[in-house]
């Protein structure tokens, strides 16, 4: 595979994972108005759950991925019910609380496994004869990411619960008047975000490695992605993920690998100055 083709292929596949992470991030902000800085930590929780499930309990990677989704969702549910719900009308307090949780998760990961990256088994081995040869694991992670994104998009727009989440995002009071329990909708979005982040952690861990700080970069990129696409917009998050993903991969590949993350921050600043509502505005308005 030529260098350019390989770079484009890598950007296309990695951007799908970024979209998976960013959608969970934007759902919580769009519905509950919460800037969840522990979203990256949930990626770490999911990846390490899969690591322990395979290396300690001997599960195969698919069972480990399922366990990761359950643990990721449970982690977010417990965090929301145990702490966030009591201060969710205090944005600064919530932001600090989620930041502290993120730090706690990283420190626990360092205590448990140290600072050396750990390998996670691939979802599937081998190469696919596509574009000169693509790792089957990357291609499968890309395909599964898009399947999940499509299911999520359909679920939010066409199911009763999804429409209730949309209604809650538009007006909590209005949703309450028609019998929608906003607290329950908040809980659903936290659980969903946890599930998506944990699964993204498994995909990233199987493609790269698992480490205590692996959630930091996706969190920073997610912030840039949702601001670019429009906070609360699922469509915007998908488009933003591909813009940021391509920019990130091309910067690392053709400019300097040490600039990883910088390009997305430049985009973030430009969007905040020029078009703060993002490309798609805000679909989920609180």
UniProtKB/TrEMBL annotation:
Keyword Disulfide bond (UniProt): no
Transmembrane feature ranges: 12-35, 41-59, 66-86, 139-158, 187-207, 219-245, 257-274
Topological relation to the membrane, as annotated: Multi-pass membrane protein
Pfam families: BPD_transp_2 (PF02653)
Name this protein carries in UniProt: Branched-chain amino acid ABC transporter permease
GO molecular function, one term: transmembrane transporter activity
Organism, as annotated: Halocalculus aciditolerans
InterPro entries per record: ABC_transp_permease, BCAA_transport_permease
GO terms (BP aspect): amino acid transport
Keywords: Amino-acid transport, Cell membrane, Membrane, Transmembrane, Transmembrane helix, Transport
Cell location: Cell membrane
Family membership: Belongs to the binding-protein-dependent transport system permease family. LivHM subfamily.
Residue runs in coiled coils: none
